[in-house]
Amino acid sequence: MEQAEFLKKHIFTDLKNLNDGDDSENVYLFSEADFEIVLERAQHFGIGIYNIESWQKNEVHETVAHDDFKKKATDPRWYKRAFLTIKTSQPGLLYSASYKVSNKLLAR
């Protein structure tokens, strides 16, 4: 199984991709509520999240990365804290992230 297929099947299932642009195949944009579910599912599977982008009016509003928090990409403390900080400072944004699914998970 490929990473994109795993994400669609196990992480993004039943969530609405709000990206309607040309790159909608590669970038999944989620509402605040849906992205919170994405983060919970990523934590459950131990998926790495390298960065989180918040979007406003089809433009990137802010980008944060695990390096900014000096944490591993698989450590949920960094991405939960980053998400909480962004959503409280600016409600109503859309969110995307870059993920890393381990080969062990893909082999299942």
From TrEMBL:
Record-given protein name: Uncharacterized protein
Source species of the chain: Aequorivita vitellina
